Queue: 3 jobs
Job 1
Amino acid sequence: MTKINILCVIGFFLTMTSFAKADDQGAMQAISKADQLMLMQNYADAEQQYQSAMKMAESALSRAYAHYKLGTIYNDRNNRTLAKKHWNAGVAALRAEGQENSSLHFHLQEAIKDVSAGQ
């Protein structure tokens, strides 16, 4: 994944946080903490935070973002199967709520294409 893609997704997440539902704040806090852990290259703890966020998430965007980041972690660990599973789950979450036009959906689809081409 390129730095530009990472910045786009982080920008998307920052935009998303301003529109998050009040009942999704727990997930948003876990995601924020996980993103900080990723920047510090603490991937094991970030993985746990994304897992927690995914379970708490009330919105498809929060759930899909957590899946996207988990897929990224697994892809970096060369676990392409688990990465693709999470990216597909993120796509499914967005589709279930009619959010196929979101930038996150685009990045999930691109990640799936990239990992499929590399297998």
Job 2
Amino acid sequence: MDRGRVIANGTREELVQMATKTERAVLTLKGDRETLESSLESLKEVEEVRFEGYRQGGYARFLLRAPTGTPLIPLLNDFIRQNNLEVKELSREEPTLEETFIWLLSRDKSRQR
């Protein structure tokens, strides 16, 4: 709802799916940030690589985005195997409810113009 008007209706999953314009994954690997970041950025299917800090044990955590429909997890699995990397985490990430809400509001405002 925005100012008393319903701008979207559905379950959390349905609303998130409406707002999802990209595939997102979290990848935590052991190694040097710059080297890993450069290698991940060379993947042509990946639109964004964002370093999110180091974790205990020297693991670098990244958030990656690719166009909707890109098989991001299989792509990253292949990357990991080809480079013989030590992985702590690889998971798909959904937009937060806040990100979904902001997207829905911005979409509604652009329709009003």
Job 3
Amino acid sequence: MDLYDRAKHMRGTPGAEGPPSAPAQLRPAPSGVSSLPTVVVERSQRAANEGKSCFTGLLPDIRHAWASVDTSLFLWRYDVRGSVPIEYAAEQRPIT
């Protein structure tokens, strides 16, 4: 079972622990999570068209979301609509 299937399983069962092999950090998205910021969507679409990887996740303890798009890492408040992401740009290597 891959990560997508684990997350899908957990979303479908409120309060579920997930499969025994699921990492402890894997949880359903908190309520009030807003959509991705426009700059992150645009950059990830561009990267995907170029065959580059993009990753996203939530840090629920500090109410932030993150996205790595090629050599940039974005961090923003997911519970504040219109939150402007902070960008960290690495020099050479993609952030994975």
